[in-house]
Design brief:
InterPro entries: LysR_HTH_N, LysR_subst-bd, WH-like_DNA-bd_sf, WH_DNA-bd_sf. The chain has twelve helices and 13 strands. With 299 residues, the chain is α/β, with parallel strands linked by helices. It folds into two domains: 82 residues, Orthogonal Bundle (Arc Repressor Mutant, subunit A); 213 residues, D-Maltodextrin-Binding Protein, domain 2 (3-Layer(aba) Sandwich).
Length: 299
């Protein structure tokens, strides 16, 4: 049943006849009469008693009247919800990432986004590494991923955001005599608590790992457990400086020589992003000061 036929039917009921209803709908009287006859033919019932001067609903017409008003109300609510999403008055953006970026930059991004769009929700999906980010995007589990940009992320759209400086965070008992910056070869002599299960992280830290990984005292994929182990003196760890500042305040931080850095950014699944996802990308660019790139913009 066409929605416009439902609209025409309700208008005829409300105005008590074809003439006034046609005027309110800005259509001709013959066109409206034909539309009502089409509706009756499709339903196989007579909707109006046409014997008097004023059209009166039949029993079938009264039944349709109740259903028709419910349909139009549902459509109006649906349109309002869609409009709210379009105008960013409602909606959700699904963001996927892994442990390396769960604090920096995701916390800053999420806070800034929520400050700017308080009516929008951020759903954060945690996965085990960059490969799982790609899988989540392909499956539609998320629209936006936060990743290390050193890998190839084709065919996804990439949005570079910034560079993390990774530092060595040591418990005070292990920090005596360690120079700042600390040479990489000296890091290989220190006990470390790091995540070697993530291939991208393992590759990044390869130059800090002794032969046979003898200085990796705990291979831990859970950031909070890593921080607790370091805080209790089990070993040092290598984390972004922002993470060390916020999560490991009782450690001593050392720059690494040569510096250890990691480029990060967003990846977007194919197709036009939702309004919420587009807003998230815009906020990310604003926070990290990267200008818009015509190759990554979606018109």
């Amino acid at each position: 049943m066409d929605l416009h036929l439902v609209t025409y039917f309700v208008a005829v009921v409300d105005h008590g006849g074809i003439t006034k209803a046609a005027q309110s709908l800005y259509i001709s009287q013959p066109s409206l009469s034909q539309a009502i006859r089409t509706l009756e033919r499709r339903l196989g019932v007579t909707l109006f008693d046409r014997t008097g001067r004023r059209l009166e609903l039949t029993e079938a017409g009264r039944t349709l009247d109740t259903a028709a008003r419910r349909i139009l109300a549902d459509v109006a609510r649906a349109k309002a919800k869609v409009e709210a999403v379009r105008t960013l008055e409602s909606g959700r953006v699904d963001v996927v990432t892994y442990a390396a970026f769960s604090i920096d930059p995701l916390v800053t991004l999420t806070r800034e986004f929520r400050d700017r769009f308080p009516n929008l929700t951020v759903r954060i999906v945690a996965v085990d590494g960059p490969g799982a980010v790609a899988t989540a995007l392909r499956r539609g589990d998320a629209e936006v991923g936060v990743v290390d940009l050193s890998a190839d992320h084709a065919p996804f759209t990439t949005v570079p955001l910034g560079t993390q400086e990774l530092v060595l965070a040591l418990p005070p008992a292990l920090a005596d005599g360690v120079p700042d910056p600390v040479p990489r070869e000296q890091v290989r002599a220190l006990p470390l608590v790091v995540d070697m299960g993530d291939q991208s992280t393992a590759a990044l830290l390869a130059d800090l790992v002794a032969p046979g990984a003898s200085n990796i005292v705990v291979d831990c994929s859970h950031p909070t457990a890593t921080w607790e182990l370091v805080d209790r003196g089990a070993g040092g760890t290598v984390v972004p400086r922002a993470v060390a500042d916020g999560q490991l305040p009782r450690t001593v931080q050392f720059s690494i020589d040569p510096p250890l850095t990691r480029e990060y950014g967003l990846v977007l699944r194919s197709g036009r992003p939702s309004p919420a996802a587009m807003a998230f990308v815009a906020v990310a660019r604003g926070v990290f000061g990267r200008p818009a790139d015509p190759h990554t913009d979606h018109e």
